[in-house]
């Protein structure tokens, strides 16, 4: 099928584009810059120029395609206001894309995060949070999934806190970036909190499976590592970068601080059983060994 992809040059998106093309699909991808357009062209995708805020462009891309994978999200997380703007922008984009598909039974796959459940690992049956710093994202994903009743095969792939490739990406990547800036690998809390993780190429395979076969209104977990202790993640980063490792206030991480400090393991048992997804790439702690000083 021809698939319209937004966010096709990010850590997840570039892997998704490659996965789709390698499995016989064609890709029409949104590009907001010459650099992104060239990267997508080099990968073998067709390019539609525009930004996630260009709703008419998004509608055009969806109308020309047999399915949609919506991955684009703003890159400014520096303040609560900036994060809220990115969530609102993503919500408007998903609504516009979904409306184009009403009555067609065509698929749209969107992305969200795995939920957190006190005292146990989250499963695919647990609802997304509708309060807290990313509450708006949960509400917009739920609204898209509700479009199943209007003839849209809407599904969601829930991503863990770290989606990685060659040691880069996700919450672990943010720890690394901050460590390079400050000279200390800092982590919030006592470091025993667990973050789930997945390799980007394994996540990409799940997006393709959801696009091809997941029933409408369903959510799936792209979780390979159910939960790595944050201090173990920080220890590998510190060793690879030659920097000290120590706890720091969660406020150091801006709007993500409360999320960084929370224990949030997750499982993917049902996803593996129903969709046949099997992660095959290195786990997070192995992949972090690729970090260069």
CATH class of the largest domain: Alpha Beta
User: What is the count of helical runs?
Assistant: 11
Write down the Rg: 18 Å
Structural class: alpha/beta
* SSE order: EHEHEHEHEHEEHEEHEEHEHHH
CATH architecture of the largest domain: 3-Layer(aba) Sandwich
What does this structure look like?
This protein has 2 domains: 2-162 and 197-224, 3-Layer(aba) Sandwich (Rossmann fold), CATH 3.40.50; 165-195 and 226-268 and 280-290, UDP-galactose 4-epimerase, domain 1 (Alpha-Beta Complex), CATH 3.90.25. It is 41% helix and 19% strand. With 293 residues, the chain is α/β, with parallel strands linked by helices. It has 11 helices and 12 strands. It has helices spanning 11-22, 34-43, 55-63, 80-101, 135-146, 170-182, 200-213, 230-241, 257-260, 269-275, 284-287; strands spanning 2-6, 26-31, 46-49, 67-70, 107-113, 153-159, 162-164, 185-187, 194-199, 218-221, 225-229, 245-247. Strand 4 (67-70), helix 4 (80-101) and strand 5 form a beta-alpha-beta unit. The model has no long low-confidence stretch (mean pLDDT 94). The strands form 3 sheets. It has a 7-stranded parallel β-sheet, sandwiched between helices. Strands 7-9-11 form a 3-stranded mixed β-sheet. Helix 1 (11-22) crosses helix 7 and helix 3 (55-63) packs parallel to helix 4 (80-101).
């Amino acid at each position: 099928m021809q698939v319209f992809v937004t966010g096709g040059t990010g850590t997840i998106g570039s892997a998704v584009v490659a996965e789709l093309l390698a499995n016989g699909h064609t890709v029409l991808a949104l590009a907001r810059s010459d650099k992104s357009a060239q990267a997508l062209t080099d990968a073998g995708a067709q390019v539609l120029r525009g930004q996630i805020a260009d709703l008419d462009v998004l509608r055009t891309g969806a109308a020309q395609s047999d399915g949609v994978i919506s991955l684009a999200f703003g890159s400014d997380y520096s303040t609560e206001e900036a994060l809220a703007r990115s969530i609102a922008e993503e919500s408007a984009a998903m609504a516009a894309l979904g409306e184009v598909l009403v009555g067609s039974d065509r698929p749209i796959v969107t992305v969200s995060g795995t939920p957190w459940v006190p005292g146990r690992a989250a499963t695919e049956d647990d609802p997304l949070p509708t309060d807290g710093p990313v509450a708006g994202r949960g509400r917009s994903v739920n609204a898209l999934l509700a479009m199943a009743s209007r003839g849209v095969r809407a599904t969601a792939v829930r991503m863990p806190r770290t989606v990685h490739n060659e040691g880069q990406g996700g919450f672990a990547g943010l720890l690394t970036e901050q460590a390079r800036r400050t000279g200390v690998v800092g982590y919030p809390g006592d470091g025993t909190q667990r973050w789930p993780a997945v390799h980007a190429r394994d996540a990409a395979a799940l997006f393709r499976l959801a696009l091809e076969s997941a029933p409408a209104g369903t959510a799936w977990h792209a979780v390979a590592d159910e939960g790595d202790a944050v201090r173990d993640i920080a220890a590998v980063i510190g060793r690879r970068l030659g920097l000290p490792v120590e706890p720091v206030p969660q406020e150091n991480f801006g709007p993500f601080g409360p999320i960084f400090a929370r224990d949030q393991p997750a499982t993917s048992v049902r996803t593996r059983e129903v969709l046949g997804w099997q992660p095959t790439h290195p786990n997070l702690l192995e992949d972090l060994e690729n970090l260069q000083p």
